[in-house]
User: Fold this.
Amino acid sequence: MRLGWMTAAAILAAGGAAAKMVTPGMDRSWGKPGVTLEAYRADGLACAREAAATDLSKTDPARALVIASRLVENDPTIGAGAMIDPMGSAQAGGDPVPSNAAAGIVQNIGPGRQILKAGDIMKARLESCLVRLGYAKFRLTGAQRKRLRGLPEGSDARRAYLHGLASDPVVLARQKLD
Assistant:
């Protein structure tokens, strides 16, 4: 099995696809007093696209995944064609990498952690965009969270409910987060 920088890129891309990781939080949302539903949707979409377009290739998570990929790629015990001379000595060709080296590499690098870090970078870009467009983060009350849980994700009803909260100056003033 040959792994390389493309593997790292694919892992990071999969992280980006897991959009649920890039949210304001279970009890938070974003709003702007008086914003129309059309502007609310357009702004959210524009900021989501900006965050999704973030170049992660030169970030620490990408570098860590590339390093892990290269270490696994160079493990002679992995994949077809890997040849180890069981009679070879340390002086003749060095010790072969133990068969559990790939697992150790994965554990040390922590691809899941790196993907979460990449998600944090994208979330920061999303939030920066929303702030630039005049939005502020606010905390949902228990009753608001309960109502939201009853509305299917991605539905027009859920979007309309969130917009109603997000555009209400009273809600924003009472529940604004710093």
User: Anything to note?
Assistant: Residues 69 and 174 are 48 Å apart (CA to CA).
